[in-house]
Design a protein that fits this description.
This protein has 26 helices and 32 strands. The protein is an alpha/beta fold. The C terminus is likely disordered. Pfam families: FAD_binding_3, Oxidored_FMN.
């Protein structure tokens, strides 16, 4: 096979090495526009998992790399005059220049034709001449641009600038320095890459850069030139960090990180590799790692599959989910550093934990395995901040206004669609009573509707008749009599999303018969298949407000401990808040303040009717997941408005406001919104923040709470799977909690057989029907 590789960086060279090694008959040409000894950057980082793959794939390359490694286990967080150290992280780094030299030599040994100082010919011509064209030509890939219509690339840039530098100070660990300067917060990412130097990256928000560096930053720098004026200021700002050592430049210019994504990586016989196909923020050290793992996978797929089309399809199928997972983690890390200033009120221990868990790949449990002493210190700090004894963070007590909760687990409101004429029945008693017996600190009802017309479906419960009130009181009395849990009621009105089928009959599908008129702020249907709502008049708004008040009084008589106003998910009050659904031109539409007016009027009226000693909370959709709708900035303003009106907690959900939404699902995908609201609003007003959304493990709950991203976590589907989720979480953590006495005999630690952390798998490459010594490494996450 004739293979043309465009780009002589780690991805291109390593692929050439592996492909030639697996099949010496391949004719491989590598085109590299730079000279052999030209290189940019300083050090590259590898995890132990990636190094294991390199070792199995090519022992010669691994052995040569091993002689160059700077290894470390510790991460030091320098913050507010304190150094917090966490160990057990297991990374290695080396000079990028030495890595390229090793790969170049290996290419020479294997007779790979590497053409330095030679720009590649046009990719279309190469594709016609060669069996395979591998585009490893970097983040600014000419091949990706040449075939942009086929690859479907996008580049997302964010709000931080960075300068990639080096220093002759050899760090003894991975270093994060938080610098509080007259211009604003800056951060340093530093790590050793050899016996004589370290990588030294300064990163800062665009606003800080404008104040500090914009007046002096050089422009129009030529090839190989560095921004010396900026570097001189960095020397001054980082004098304490550098301890008299030099800063080193290498074509060092200010950049804004761009996350590259492509809809497709393959076009005919052309394939993208490494940064040409995808990028991930440098704060998780993933660029060279991903590139070399790409090379491993592509070479193996070519060897295993019968032809090039099948090999390229297998490569993309295998690598895409791994890359997507890494990009999600990198994006979370990027955004954390972008918003670092919102955490600088935190104590050093919490700040360090927050930083270490920013990408969600390192967690509370994971840190306990890596560094038990550090984890124990965190537990002691958190217990001291609460004023209790040491316990897993989720089992520390919490308060929502005057309401005391035994722990920080909330059973999230979940619609059951099982009421008859709005009356909760035996099912609701078992459902909510069972969840309360299961150990959660707070159990929330589903959305209870304030009127018959305010129901979502015929199966939705209400609180607008005496019979409904009595049925709810029975459930509340059971929870209070039989469990230590508190029980809260979520009150709402369906608005334009009403008169639909039960969820399992067709979610959001309109009733074919027996429906009722729906209403909203504007005559805009939820989807083309749904009813067009009646636009509410001022008189209608007054009537609905009184329905909320009447239901609040009934909830108080029924004995609920907490009342939550549902202003999320596209129901009536949510649709007033969003510009996508509120097109009114009166005082209840238009500006954000006007769109808030009716929800705040309802909240204030309910607050007057609701007992002062019991808290009220609000659930909001922090983003509409659609252009032109509410986003994070608007969510902060909405949360602040409710906090100022006396909300004791903000329950932070997202979406379901418009049917055209484009949500970005994933593990704990909504928590960044809760995080920001807690640190910008909750801390200022003493308002608790509840995180919700794909939080399924007790490890995630502990991590979110200990990092200060939320005060409580609402768990939904996991409680449907396991009503005793909280009790089982305590058992798995060997934490003693009181079980209901009739269940005490079953109290034991489950034998789950669980292992912690990804377990690598070795797939042997087959040659001539026999398993060879050349092994193929696939990370666990690729399965």
């Amino acid at each position: 096979m004739r293979i043309s590789v465009l780009g002589g960086g780690p991805a291109g060279l390593y692929f050439a090495v592996l492909a030639k090694q697996l099949n010496p008959a391949h004719e491989i040409t590598v085109w590299e526009r730079n000279a052999p000894d030209d290189t940019f950057g300083f050090g590259v980082v590898f995890s132990d998992e990636t190094l294991g793959g390199i070792e199995h794939a090519d022992a010669v390359v691994h052995e040569a790399m091993s002689r160059e490694f700077a290894r470390w286990d510790d991460i030091d967080v320098h913050y507010r005059g304190t150094v917090t150290t966490s160990g057990g992280h297991g990374f290695a780094a080396m000079s990028r220049k030495r890595l390229l030299a090793i790969l170049q030599q290996r290419c020479r040994d294997l007779d790979v034709d590497v053409r330095f100082s030679t720009p590649a010919p046009d990719a279309a011509g190469l594709a016609a001449e060669y069996d395979l064209v591998v585009a490893a030509d970097g983040v600014n890939s000419a091949v990706r641009t040449r075939f942009a219509e086929a690859f479907g690339p996008s580049v997302e840039t964010r709000q931080c600038r960075y300068l990639w530098l080096g220093t002759d100070l050899v760090f003894d660990a991975f270093k994060f320095h938080v610098l509080e300067t007259p211009h604003g917060i800056m951060q340093i990412h530093g790590y050793p890459y050899g016996r004589d130097g370290s990588t030294f990256i300064l990163e800062l928000h665009e606003q800080v850069w404008q104040r500090a560096f914009a007046p002096i930053a050089a422009s129009g720098l030529g090839p190989g030139e560095s921004d010396e004026k900026s570097i001189e200021l960095i020397r001054e700002l980082c004098a304490d960090v550098l301890e008299g050592h030099r800063i080193l430049a290498n074509n060092s210019k200010w950049g804004t990180f761009g996350t590259v994504r492509c809809a497709r990586w393959v076009h005919d016989n052309v394939v993208l590799l490494g940064d040409a196909a995808h990028t991930a923020h440098f704060s998780i050290g993933s660029g060279t790692k991903l590139a070399m793992e790409d090379a491993l996978a592509l070479a193996a797929c070519l060897h295993e599959q019968p032809d090039v089309p099948e090999a390229l399809a297998a490569y993309e199928e295998e690598r895409r989910p791994v890359v997507a997972s890494t990009q999600r983690a990198a994006q979370a890390s990027l955004e954390w550093f972008e918003n670092l200033a919102q955490y600088t009120h935190q104590e050093p221990a919490q700040f360090a934990f927050n930083l270490l868990t920013r990408s969600r790949r390192v967690t509370y449990d994971n840190l306990k395995l890596r560094d038990r002493e550090f984890a124990a210190e965190l537990d002691e700090w958190f217990a001291g901040s609460v004023g209790t004894t040491v316990a897993p963070p989720m089992f520390q007590p919490a308060r929502i206004g005057p309401l005391e909760l035994a722990n920080r687990v909330v059973v999230s409101p979940m619609d059951m669609y099982s009421a008859v004429d709005g009356v909760p029945g035996e099912f609701h008693l078992v459902h909510l009573g069972g969840k309360a017996l299961g150990g959660a600190g707070l159990v929330m009802t589903e959305m209870i509707c304030v009127s018959e017309e305010g129901r979502i479906t015929p199966g939705c419960p209400g609180l607008y008749t005496a019979e409904q009130e009595q049925a709810w009181q029975r459930i509340v009395d059971f929870v209070h009599r039989e469990t230590p849990a508190k029980i809260g009621l979520q009150l709402g009105h369906s608005g334009r999303k009403g008169a639909t089928k039960l969820m399992w009959e067709g979610m959001d599908d309109p009733l074919p018969e027996g429906g009722w008129e729906v209403c909203g702020p504007s005559p805009l249907p939820y989807s083309p298949k749904n009813q067009t709502p009646r636009e509410l008049s001022i008189m209608d708004l007054s009537e609905i407000r009184e329905q909320f008040v009447s239901a609040a009084r009934a909830a108080a008589r029924a004995g609920f401990d907490l009342l939550e106003l549902h202003c999320a998910h596209g129901y009536l009050l949510s649709s007033f808040l969003s510009p996508l659904t509120n097109h009114r031109t009166d005082e209840y539409g238009g500006s954000p303040e006007n769109r808030l007016r009716f929800p705040l009027e309802v909240f204030d009226a309910m607050r007057t009717a609701w007992p002062a000693q019991r808290p009220m909370t609000v659930r909001i959709s922090a983003t509409d997941w659609f252009p032109g709708g509410n986003g994070a900035d608007e969510a902060v303003a909405i949360a602040q408005a409710f906090a100022e009106h006396g909300a004791a907690a903000i329950d932070v959900s997202t979406g379901q406001v418009v049917s055209e939404e484009q949500p970005k699902f994933g593990r704990s995908y909504q928590t960044p919104y809760a995080d920001r609201i807690r640190n910008e609003v909750g801390r200022r007003y003493g308002t608790a923040v509840i995180a919700v959304g794909a939080i399924s493990s007790y490890d995630d709950v502990n991590s979110l709470i200990l990092a200060g991203r939320a005060d409580l976590c609402a768990i939904g589907r996991s409680h449907l799977y396991d009503p005793q989720w909280t009790l089982h979480a305590a058992a798995e953590q060997d934490y003693p909690v009181a079980w209901p006495l009739p269940w005490a005999a079953g109290k034991r630690k489950p034998q789950t057989g669980r292992t912690d952390g990804p377990q690598p798998r070795l797939d042997l490459v087959r040659t001539g029907g026999h398993q060879t010594a050349h092994a193929r490494w696939r990370p666990e996450s690729a399965r």
